[in-house]
Amino acid sequence: MRHLRITWDKGLIVLLALTLGVGALISPRFFTGSNLGFVIQDIGEIMIVALVMTLIIITGEIDLSVGSMVALTGCVMGVAWHHGWPMWLAAASAIVTGGIAGSLNGFLVTKVGLPSLAVTIGTLGLFRGLSWALLGDQTISDFPASWLAFGYDNIPGTSFPWVAPILLVLGVTFGVVLHLTRTGRWIFATGQSAQAARFAGIPVQRLKFRLFVLSGLMCGLAGIVYSMRFASARPDSAIGLELAVIASVLFGGVSIFGGVGTIWGVVTSVLFLGAIRSLLLLERVPPNELTIITGLLLLASVVIPVVASKLAGLRRKYRLPDSTAGPPGQPTTAGQPLGSPGQPARSA
Domain 2-347 falls in which CATH fold? Predict the structure, then answer.
């Protein structure tokens, strides 16, 4: 029955609910206000960067330099504060630095015409190197107590960290932009076919450039959140962040080939990742082994669409009935076989 069909991103909500239920059964400390607040705090910078990464990947591009940008912006903020700048101005310098770094990525991709994968692999090393050049093996940890409270304290009278309302506002804003505005329709159309989008009058290059700049700005915000949460600015911050972000985005139903995805799927995916990490920590699983979970999610998000596409081909060949669920990055629509590309108009 077509009206009972669910898509992958909606199925993730069920998966998240099951994870919360199982976690509550396994550990009595899991489903508590303090631990749920920790989960939100733990995914803060991942969520911030994943929201803008969603838009970039839907257009058919990628930004692998986000972890290094988060580290660089945090280091710039730390150096500015160490040299006597007011804290608000030091934080603003982190945002500006992120915007400049994102502009470099955008310029090389849209103006020079280089592939974003190659560009951002290069700038990943460049930005990390600049972080080490700024601080060396030093760590700046004398930030004002009021700003550090923003990183790891809760809103008075609640179990929610201060970053929670920021994530809520950003999630709603990105959701509205992607699914309810002309810009969102442009993003989907560009991911479906950049050439067709150009013929339709969409400023594809300008759109992509602005998204890379936005990625840098969001990394600047994430750099502030990260530095305040760990009460320090250091050049080895956020190592591996890009892996967690991309795994969350792809597992949230965004196609690596572009043109398909939802904000709510990515938000659910990040929350799911945070819940899994929290449960494993409560069960005393070594933190380094949590990378295995991230890698498995990333692998699953790439393999499942391919397998589903093969099954869809077999179904069409032998005229088997439609499946009831779609894989990551390939949500089904009414009258559309499993594994077929989503339609921008549907997602928008």
Answer: ABC transporter involved in vitamin B12 uptake, BtuC (1.10.3470)
Q: Which amino acid is at 277?
A: R
112-125 per-residue burial string, b: 16 or more CB within 10 A, e: under 16:
eeeebeebbeebbe
Alpha helices in the chain (DSSP H): 8-26, 33-42, 44-58, 66-82, 87-106, 116-135, 145-152, 163-180, 182-192, 194-199, 204-229, 241-251, 263-282, 290-318, 344-347
d(CA 233, CA 220): 13
Q: 65, 211 in Cβ contact below 8 A?
A: no
- Structure tokens that stand for 316 in this block: 């069409």
| C-alpha distances in Å from residue 212, one per residue of 51, 215, 227, 305, 348 | 12, 5, 22, 26, 21
HEC secondary structure over 244-295 = HHHHHHHHCCCCCCCCCCCHHHHHHHHHHHHHHHHHHHHCCCCHHHHHHHHH
Length reported for the chain: 348
Give backbone dihedrals phi and psi of 6, rounded to 5 degrees, phi first.
-120, 155
Is the pLDDT confidence value at 282 over 60?
Answer: yes
Residue 181 CB-half CA count within 13 A = 10
pLDDT digits (tens, 9 = 90+) for 226-258: 999 999 999 999 998 998 899 889 988 898 899
The separation between the first and the last C-alpha atoms of the chain, rounded to the nearest angstrom, is 24
User: Nearest to residue 150, comparing CAs of 79, 210, 77, 217?
Assistant: 77
Q: Is 344's pLDDT higher than 60?
A: no
Helix (H, G, I), strand (E, B) or coil at 154: strand
Boundaries of every domain in the chain: 2-347
> 199-207: long-range contacts at Cβ-Cβ below 8 A with a sequence spacing of 24 or more?
205/110, 205/111, 206/110, 207/59, 207/183
pTM listed for this prediction? 0.85
Q: How far apart are CA 314 and CA 111, in angstroms?
A: 42
Query: Under a CB-based contact definition with an 8 Å cutoff, are residues 57 and 249 in contact?
Result: yes
CA 131, distance to chain mean position in Å, is 22
